[in-house]
Write a structure and sequence with these properties.
By secondary structure, this protein is of the alpha+beta class. About 35% of the residues lie in helices and about 25% in strands. The protein has a five-stranded antiparallel sheet.
Length: about 280
């Protein structure tokens, strides 16, 4: 449980952090809240030779109204998102899901950017951003680019981020007054989800995403297709596990996770007003 040795550098700006990770390539890792990276380092599942601390970069913690969407800095902490009056009014599902991350200690330290960039299929916030149709702004030596959440998660703990890029901002559409719901099944309140389901109405259609039902956070496309064809909540929920590859671990078998996905999807859809 002791990490391999590494060098530590504290960046004062996003540009400095990008310069450092560009210099060191895949030997460098960005450190924000550290709740995902440090445990992996202790187990030597991650062995960076350089840690670039970005926790003190002050211009990446914003939650701002940008007209048709809300812009959230990558270093905005879960607690800030949970309690943001702007998000509670304009994108309430994201604020609610942030309140379900870990425990108060984790939420006061962990960041939305770290949660998304880590690309853990068992995380809550990636599912919420997927269901909301959000996008992510990443920055590298060649400037910025915007990546749709549906294209961001590419594999187990892997994302579309290049080695010399960092996630700087998350964009989510405003959704005041629309129907949404988040269902999370876990053993203890602060645990990772054994299975989770996020459902949100976007442009008149229901979008559904799944937690811990594959190697990445993913949209439940079979459910969405069924709903678009006029299926009821129960009928659409029966499709929840289709096209997924649920993992097996000490908490649940793939078959049990498939059952949970169907049950939780039905609950989420019904709570979102789908009959």
């Amino acid at each position: 449980m002791i990490p391999a040795s590494f060098d530590y550098v504290k960046a004062s700006s996003a540009d400095e952090a990008i310069s450092l990770i560009s210099e060191h390539g895949d030997e460098a890792k960005l450190l924000a809240g550290g709740h995902s990276l440090i445990p992996m380092m202790k187990l030597r599942l991650a062995v960076p030779s350089v840690l670039v601390d970005i926790a003190g970069v002050r211009d990446l913690s914003h939650v701002e109204d940008r007209g048709d969407h809300i812009a959230i800095g990558a270093l905005a902490k879960h607690r800030s998102i949970e309690t943001s009056e702007l998000l509670i009014a304009q994108c309430p599902m994201l604020a609610h899901v942030a309140s379900k991350v870990g425990d108060p200690q984790v939420r006061h330290r962990g960041t939305i950017g770290g949660s998304l960039a880590h690309s853990d299929p068992a995380s809550d916030l990636p599912a919420a951003v997927l269901a909301l149709g959000g996008s992510l702004i990443v920055q590298g030596p060649n400037g910025q680019r915007e990546i749709a959440a549906t294209d961001f998660f590419t594999g187990y703990f892997e994302s579309a981020l290049a080695e010399d890029e960092m996630l700087t901002e998350v964009k989510v559409p405003k959704s005041p007054g629309t129907n949404w719901n988040y269902q999370k099944f876990n053993r203890r309140a602060q645990d990772w989800a054994i299975v989770g389901v996020a459902a949100a109405q976007v442009d008149g259609a229901m979008q559904v995403s799944l937690v811990n039902m594959g190697s990445t956070p993913l949209r439940a496309t079979a459910v969405e297709t069924a709903l678009a064809s006029g299926a009821s909540a129960a009928e659409a929920a029966d499709e929840a596990a289709n096209g997924t590859e649920a993992p097996t671990d000490l908490n649940a078998s793939p078959e049990y996770r498939a059952h949970l996905a169907r049950v939780l999807t039905k609950r989420a859809l019904e709570a979102s007003g789908v009959e």
